[in-house]
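Hi V.,

Quick status before I head out on leave. The structure for the redesign project is tokenized and pasted below; the design run finished overnight.
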């Protein structure tokens, strides 16, 4: 029997999109309608170990030391089947996963989760996939997970088929880049991103405009990253984030993830900018606000936010690294 001590653990960091992914052209393969670009964060990650074990009756999945129910295990099993098929493996798996997200963050993410699972399954199955191949597998667990294979600024290229829809690293982001995550509400969102994006694609009359505009934003942000033009990166990030939320508002029924404190956080960012601190906001499928900033300014930004938010609602992060094996 394979003991857990024989298994190898992988850590993958979560990522926040600066150019958003919002919509699929293939639900099953998780092929996106547009390319996206993110920043990987070192403050939030998942560590996962997988072992294939003939003596197990069925796949057994522990998350944060809690045995998971059938539905959660089924998701993981389906994903592991991709690896079992490739490696011609029949054995059930023991999966142990831990989310390292600061208490009360409410940011548990499928991006780091699925990327870490892909990395651990890669080691356990002996398939030795390249990072590019891993990105393709991670993508099939959750779109944003394709980007968590790499650290720094990462582009998920929409590709033309499953074989060329993967992430590539654009830049290490090691030039004084950070984020202040403002936790507005840590509760589970009411509408999953999977459903939210489906509704938006199907019903928002603004969707065609989004597709056209996000392609331009992507070209421009890559240019700005190449030039290390932080202000330009920030302006494009803020604009792209607001455009996707505008597109969601156009859905029928309309979709809004915002809460009053989300607006407060955005106003504070604008105020800080007026005071001369370059910082820019973005939001995802939930009320939390992520503030892109110079890491060297993050302390000052956090101090300003402490007038309105509590210490535990404010998490500062630098750029995260590539997915990696962790030795026990
Ligand atoms: C992103 N989000 O680019 C966008 C922006 C949320 C808003 O990727 O259906 O959990 O598993 O592919 O990756 C969230 O969507 O969705 C997401 P699936 P995923 O980060």
């Amino acid at each position: 029997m394979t003991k857990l001590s024989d298994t190898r653990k992988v850590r993958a960091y979560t990522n926040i999109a600066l150019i958003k992914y919002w919509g699929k052209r293939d639900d099953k393969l998780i092929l996106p309608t547009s390319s996206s670009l993110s920043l990987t964060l070192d403050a939030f990650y998942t560590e996962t170990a997988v072992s294939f074990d003939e003596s197990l009756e069925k796949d057994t999945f522990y998350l944060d030391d809690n045995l998971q129910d059938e539905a959660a295990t089924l998701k993981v099993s389906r994903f592991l089947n991709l690896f079992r098929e490739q490696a011609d493996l029949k054995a059930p798996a023991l999966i142990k996963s831990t989310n390292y997200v600061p208490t009360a963050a409410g940011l548990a993410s499928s991006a780091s989760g699925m990327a870490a699972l892909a990395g651990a399954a890669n080691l356990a199955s002996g398939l030795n996939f390249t990072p590019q191949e891993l990105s393709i597998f991670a993508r099939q667990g959750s779109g944003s997970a394709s980007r968590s294979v790499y650290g720094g600024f990462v582009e998920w290229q929409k590709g033309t088929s499953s074989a060329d829809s993967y992430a590539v690293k654009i830049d290490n982001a090691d030039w004084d880049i950070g984020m202040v995550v403002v936790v507005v509400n840590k509760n589970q969102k009411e509408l999953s991103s999977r459903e939210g994006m489906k509704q938006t694609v199907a019903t928002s009359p603004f969707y065609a405009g989004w597709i056209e505009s996000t392609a331009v934003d992507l070209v421009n942000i890559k240019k700005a990253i190449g030039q290390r033009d932080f202000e330009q990166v920030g302006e494009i990030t803020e604009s792209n984030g607001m455009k996707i939320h505008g597109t969601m508002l156009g859905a029928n029924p309309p979709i809004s993830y915002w809460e009053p404190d989300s607006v407060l956080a955005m106003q504070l960012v604008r105020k800080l900018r007026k005071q001369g601190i370059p910082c820019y906001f973005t939001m995802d499928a939930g009320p939390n606000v992520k503030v892109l900033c110079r890491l060297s300014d993050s302390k000052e930004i956090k101090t300003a936010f402490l007038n309105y938010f509590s210490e535990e609602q404010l998490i500062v992060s630098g750029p995260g690294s590539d997915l990696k094996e962790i030795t026990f």
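Above is the designed sequence. Residues 1-5 have pLDDT under 50 and may be disordered.

G. will cover questions while I'm gone.

Best,
W.
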